[in-house]
Amino acid sequence: MKQLLIFSLLLLFSCGKDDQxxxxxxxxxxxxxxxxxxxxxxxxxxxxxxLWGFNYDRSTETLxxxxxxxxxxxxxxxxxxxxxxxxxxxxxxxxxxxxKYMDSPTDPNIEAFNNLSMMVEVAEESGLYLDLTGLxxxxxxxxxxxxxxxxxxxxxxxxxxxxxxxxxxxGSSPSILVY
Length: 179
Fold this sequence. Notes:
Radius of gyration: 18 Å
Largest sheet: 4 strands, parallel
Number of strands: 9
Shape: globular
Strand content: 15-25%
Oligomer: single chain
Distance between the termini: 34 Å
Strand order of the largest sheet: 4-5-8-9
Structural class: alpha/beta
Order of helices and strands: HEEEEHEHEEHEHHE
C-alpha cells in the first residue's frame, strides 16, 4: 500500500503544466456502443467493458467554463484528454455549470452549447466516453438572480430545457455514455 501511495504521488507531481503536450493517441478504434446487461456494461460482442476514468476539473479553484475564453483552452483541453487516454482511461466526467449554459429560464446560451459540442468532438477524437453531469452550481455566487427567483415548477421546466438542449446538441455522439 505504501508503494502505491508513493507511486501515486510521484505520478501526480510528474504531471505539470510545463510538460510537453501528450501526443494524440494513434490508431484509436471507434467507440463501441455499450449496453447494460445485468450489472455490467458490454459492447456489441458481449464483452464486458470496465469503465475507468477521471472527473475533469480545470483546477481546484476554477471551473472548466471559466477558461473558455483563454487562448490556450482548447489546446490544453485536448492535451488533457489525450493524457487521460494515455493513462488508460476510457471515460471522463464533465461537470456542466447550469449558469454558463442558460441565459434565462427559456434561452440556452448557444455559444456554451457550441463549446460543449467541441468538447464532445475532442472526446470522440481521443476515444473517451463522457459522463455529462449537469445542472452544476458549484459556486453560490454564480447562480443568476433570475434562477433564484423561479418557482419550483419553473425550475423544473428550465432544467428540462437544459437537458433537452444537451440531448439535441450532443445526444447522438458515440462518446456520450450517460447524462
